[in-house]
Amino acid sequence: MKKISIPRLKKEADKRFSLEVRTRDKFTCQKCGKQNKHVHCAHVFSRNRLSVRYEMDNAITLCYYCHIIWSHRCPVEFAEWCRDRLGDRYLELKTQADIIITDPREFLENKWNSQSLKPAVTTTTEH
Ligand SMILES: [Zn+2]
Question: Where do the domains of the chain lie?
Fold first, then answer.
């Protein structure tokens, strides 16, 4: 595989991951039930934490309103809601989120090659 820049690896992986999450949730907001092709892939623990950025359990489909207006403006309520949904898995993810990835390229290339991020055919916009 030829060298791809890290931002590009992230962008592609994000796109594939987002599609997979939204497909899992049938493009339906898991908070309010709205269904359309514009729904977002929201992260329980911030996607700035690379260690959990591509964990399926760390992502959830939300509509624009529930993602931007609700989850971002009411982070405590959102966290409680996620904890209720995920149970013990929530704490596992919380621990995992604290892991620092020292080699982002290796990490991303592994994700890139993993089964979960494999299907590449998509033109949908990411969030
Ligand atoms: Zn919603």
Answer: 17-99
Could you tell me how far CA 63 lies from the centroid of its own chain? 14
Q: Which stretch of DSSP H or E encloses residue 10?
A: helix 6-24
Ligand 1 center–CA 61 separation, angstroms:
9
Query: Which amino acid does the sequence have at 120?
Result: A
Residue 33 Cα to ligand 1 middle (Å): 6
Query: Interior CA angle at 25 toward 24 and 27, to 5°?
Result: 110
Q: How does pLDDT run across 74-94, given as a tens digit for each residue?
A: 999 999 999 999 999 999 999
* pTM of this structure: 0.85
Distance 71 CA to ligand 1 centre (A): 10
The tokens describing 86, both together, are: 């995920």
Hey, is 67 helix, strand or coil?
A: helix
